[in-house]
Write a structure and sequence with these properties.
The complex is a heterodimer of chains A (565) and B (364). Chain A is mostly helical. In chain A, 65% of the residues lie in helices and 1% in strands. The longest helix of chain A is centred in the N-terminal third of the chain and has 35 residues. Chain A starts with a helix and ends in a 10-residue tail after the last helix. Helix content of chain B is 37%, strand content 16%. In chain B, the strands form 4 sheets. Chain B has a 5-stranded mixed sheet with strand order 3-2-1-5-8. Chain B has a 3-stranded mixed sheet with strand order 4-10-9. In chain B, helix 3 packs antiparallel against helix 4, helix 6 packs across helix 9 and helix 8 crosses helix 9. Chain B starts with 11 loop residues before the first helix and ends with a helix. Classes of the chains: A mainly alpha (565), B alpha+beta (364). Chains A and B meet through helix 4, helix 8, helix 9, helix 10 and helix 11 of A and helix 3, helix 4 and strand 9 of B.
């Protein structure tokens, strides 16, 4: 399978000439992937790397679910449980969410804007490898991190690593240092890729592609990249301060010496909340591309969608302290952040309504990408509404840090983001590999995963309402949380089966899937105008576009889109 | 808030404060006057079950949050039903059917009027929700403190709670006793909170929302439960290995019970001849570095005050019942009950264990 790709990307020869070359050894293949600066290969490596970490993070989640299935369980020790939720959170945000979205961005953006590569291919390669190194360093702590409980101590301070639990006196050894450095390196990679995306989108658009004709996915990556610039900075600064606290005895967050624990919270959430939107906006972007194609209609309200994206980008920078309603900010602070948070729901609502209007009057086909997109729409609607509940500061005094919050943000991260990532896989896998994923397996994947998702995450709201805090390794039998946690765990099993089907679908379809051809979905954006998989240079002739849907124009020369823009 | 005065003789300032409490409490006492959505909601069996449901309020802060929550839930539920209903309708109505024409459907690119409508309407809903939220927010956090309120200082520790009553000169741990509130002469309890080490959070869902205990920062919250009983909760901010076993027990006592409890807590530690040997072992072991027993050489501050340990129902921050067997097991090997807690194993022999256990059990 790798050889096939080698041939595809034997750059200097036109199609067919590669056959004459000697068959590459596996070392050549590995070398070609490690040294590549091709945006498509880097994109695929990002995605593959994220999928490996998705499996690791999933296994960590399963260990937690087994431990919590019954009260007073002793499947793992509290120390192990604390490592599991710390590594699960850190992994899923920094080493699954970010790389998979950057992977799709890397792969798709140049193709969608008619460019031959990213603006800075070497920076692209550097960003990927430094992020990958961050992930490996984090996991090396399982071997190399020594701590209170001996060697093999992974970080156990929670993914938001609240001070002063991270101070050396409370977190001895090196596990927290691994956390700091691993995340720090991934942040460098994120900023590099964000820079690359901004420059690419601004300066490498093909002829005729004005900003008003930019595909919505590209608009979203532009906004997301700006948010990365703004959000990663405070996190990196705070991590350096924490590292200084731990190594040279500074007192930024050391409350015993007059430092401020609340300062860390502000720094972390000034990063942490925009981060949520950094992860969810690309999911919106996938929906913007997929929903119109399977409804056979243009996106409704293109300008409003762009405006809503920019609006979410701005407002999301001013909502961070809704993670801190129980910290004692005072009523004025709490009220401000309540309002700011609620206001995000306005542009988000605009998006949901525009997707609804896009579907309205269309001719909807429920291929697997569309199924996942519709799952996303319902679940994101629900997640947004539980978000409104949590934005009400007094309600949050009860629900904050409870399992209700865990259910809410998994509804966003799994129910919305992961669903759209699955949709994106089914939609663009044919472009990346030249072969279709199996629709039959795709439908099994969708329905089993949806069943498991709702068993797990719908019911997870209830123990939160019944007073179960997050991050507890076990709980008292008299609280009435036991049966809920048991069903939540059973739901996880269905999700695992669905994921296994998905992995099998990818492997099997890669080998024996139906040939895709350049445009299997009868779609309208530029990536479908070139071969599947695209040649190294993407487009033999640089495309020229005259509307937002260049392929619509080609397919309907008598009724081109630009008449309506 | 505040349209029901009842302490006419009080100074104006004080009256305002008392009115606040009187008003809230009337609402609480007469739960029957809750608006109908709240009453309907409380009838859903699973949501009020268990000892720590947020929808079974027994004090004003929890009650106010409960009413607000049902209001917010109702609005969001209506929004969900409308939007999800439209979505479901569209998916069924506009699905592709066999034999559909091969022509693309009519292309619509947008409509400014519609966009404005679904921008303005959600914004108006947001304003309503915000104002409702802000009201409860300000009323709860700006609650003035009546002169006759009970004051307790709460200090979070890994992994237990320290309670100090400055007006009464009492120091205790893990079981918070407060007087039941008399709605006619409100005596709410104000908790002044901080932490000795890392962040913790005080959460007893039936009484109030949570409030964090943060080192180098002082937070305040208040409770006014009027129904005597034990209310449960636990630490709600991850604080290390035994975060899950940092349980909360709030005893709401009748005035007589509370007076009796205070009188007992104010006493010096008991000196029983039968426990003299255990006391000697205790005083000659490192126990005294961390624990305090009044009238002895044990003056440690790091662990819970043990002066009246035997008067408590539980040990290890609510994890086990306070029986001699559990006590002995705990003293022998704390990790066997609470793995990762900060109390070390003292390596006492069996005879010494029995003696220390007997001494602890004598500290009533």
């Amino acid at each position: 399978m790798l050889e096939k790709r080698m041939n595809d990307t034997t750059y200097d020869h036109p199609e067919g000439a590669a056959v004459a070359l000697a068959k590459p050894t596996w070392l050549d293949v590995v070398n070609s992937w490690i040294t590549t600066v091709d945006h498509k290969r880097i994109g695929i490596m990002y995605i593959g790397y994220a999928l490996i970490f998705l499996v690791i993070g999933g296994i960590e989640a399963l260990i937690m679910r087994v431990q919590l299935a019954v009260p007073n369980n002793h499947f793992v020790t509290p120390e192990v449980f604390n490592r599991m939720f710390t590594m699960h959170g850190t992994t899923m945000v920094f080493f699954v969410g970010m790389p998979i979205l950057f992977g799709f961005g890397n792969y798709l953006i140049p193709l969608m804007i008619g460019a031959r590569d990213m603006a800075f291919p070497r920076l692209n390669s550097f960003s990927f490898w430094i992020s990958a190194f961050g992930g490996l360093l984090l996991y090396f702590s399982f071997l190399g991190g020594d701590g209170l409980y001996g060697a093999g101590t992974a970080p156990d301070v929670g993914w938001f690593a609240y001070a002063p639990l991270t101070a050396r006196i409370f977190s001895p050894g090196h596990s927290t240092d691994y956390w700091i450095l691993g995340v720090f390196l991934s942040g460098i990679g994120s900023v590099g890729t964000a820079l690359n995306l901004v420059v690419t989108i601004i300066s490498l658009r093909c002829k005729g592609m004005t900003m008003g004709r930019l595909p919505l996915l590209a608009w979203i990556y532009l906004v997301v990249s700006w948010m990365v610039f703004i959000a990663i900075g405070p996190l990196t600064a705070a991590q350096i301060m924490l590292l200084l606290d731990r190594t040279v005895g500074s007192h930024f967050f050391d409350a015993q010496a007059g430092g401020s624990a609340v300062l860390w919270m502000h720094f972390f959430w000034i990063f942490g909340h925009p981060e949520v939107y950094i992860l969810v906006l690309p999911a919106f972007g996938f929906a913007n591309e997929i929903i119109p194609v399977f409804s056979r209609k243009a996106i409704f309200g293109y300008a409003a969608m762009v405006g809503a994206t920019v609006g979410i980008g701005f407002v999301s920078l001013g909502v961070w302290a809704h993670h801190m309603f129980t910290v004692g900010l005072g009523p004025a602070g709490n009220a401000f952040f309540t309002f700011a948070t609620m206001v995000v729901s306005v542009p988000t609502g605009i998006k949901i309504f525009n997707w609804l209007a896009t579907i309205w009057g269309g001719r909807i086909s429920f291929a697997t990408p569309m199924l996942f997109s519709m799952g996303f729409l319902f679940q994101f609607l629900a997640a947004g509404l539980t978000g409104i509940m949590l934005s009400v500061a007094p309600f949050d005094w009860q629900l904050g840090n409870s399992y209700f919050v865990v259910a809410h943000f998994h509804y966003v991260l799994v129910g919305a983001i992961l669903y759209m990532i699955f949709a994106a896989f089914y939609y663009w896998f044919p472009k990346m590999t030249g072969r279709m994923l199996s629709e039959r397996l795709g439908k099994w994947h969708f329905w089993l995963f949806t069943l498991g998702f709702h068993l797990t995450f719908d019911l997870m709201h209830i123990p939160g309402i019944l007073g179960m805090p997050r991050r507890v390794f076990t709980y008292e039998a008299d609280r009435g949380w036991g049966s809920w946690n048991m069903i939540i765990g059973i739901g996880a099993i269905f999700q695992v089966i669905a994921i296994l089907i998905f992995v099998w679908n990818m492997i099997h379809s890669y080998m024996k899937g139906e040939k895709a051809g350049p445009d299997p979905w009868d779609a309208w954006t530029l990536e479908w105008s070139t071969d599947s998989p695209p040649p190294h240079y993407n487009f033999a002739v640089e495309p020229v576009v005259e509307s937002r849907r260049p392929l619509w124009d080609r397919k309907h020369p008598n009724d081109p889109d630009n008449a309506y823009e | 808030m505040g349209d029901l005065g009842q302490s006419a003789g009080e100074a104006q300032e004080n009256q305002v404060k008392l009115m606040s409490f009187g008003n809230s409490l009337n609402a609480q006492m007469a739960a029957i006057s809750d608006p109908w959505p709240v009453r309907v909601f409380h009838k859903i069996p699973i949501l009020g079950s268990g000892p720590t449901s947020i929808f079974a309020p027994h004090a004003t802060p929890a009650h106010d949050i409960d009413s607000l929550s049902v209001f917010v839930l109702s609005i969001t539920l209506v929004i969900f039903l409308i939007v999800a209903g439209l979505l479901m309708y569209a998916l069924i109505r506009f699905r592709r059917r066999p034999g559909d024409s091969q022509m693309e459907p009519v292309q619509l690119y947008g409509s400014n009027q519609i966009e404005i409508a679904w921008t303005v309407i959600p914004f108006l809903i947001v304003v309503v929700l915000f104002l409702t939220s802000a009201r409860v927010n300000f009323v709860t956090e700006r609650q003035a403190k009546p002169a006759n309120s009970m004051d307790v200082v709460v200090i979070g520790h890994q992994f237990w709670w320290e309670y100090r009553y400055p007006k009464l000169g009492i120091v205790t741990a893990n079981e918070l006793h407060i007087p039941a509130n008399d709605p006619n002469a409100p005596t709410p309890t104000f908790l002044t909170m901080t932490s000795a080490d890392v962040d913790h959070s005080f959460w007893v869902p039936e009484l109030a929302g949570k409030m964090d205990l943060i080192p180098n920062k002082v937070n305040v919250m208040w409770l006014d439960p009027s129904k005597p009983g034990v209310y449960l909760g636990q630490c709600a901010q991850f604080c290390g290995a035994e975060h899950a076993m940092m349980l909360l027990r709030v005893y709401v006592d009748t005035p007589a019970q509370f007076a009796q409890w205070v009188a007992n807590q104010k006493k010096q530690a008991t000196e029983e001849a039968s426990a003299a040997e255990g006391k000697k072992v205790f005083e000659h072991t490192a126990c005294i570095n961390c624990h305090r027993v009044t009238g002895t050489v044990a003056t440690g501050q790091f662990g819970p005050d043990l002066t009246h340990l035997a008067s408590r129902d539980t040990i290890a921050a609510g994890v086990e019942k306070n029986t001699p067997e559990n006590l002995r097991k705990w003293i022998d090997d704390p990790d066997s009950i609470k793995m990762g807690c900060l109390m070390p194993k003292m390596h006492l022999n069996s005879h010494e264990l029995d003696a220390v256990t007997a001494y602890m059990a004598s500290l009533r």
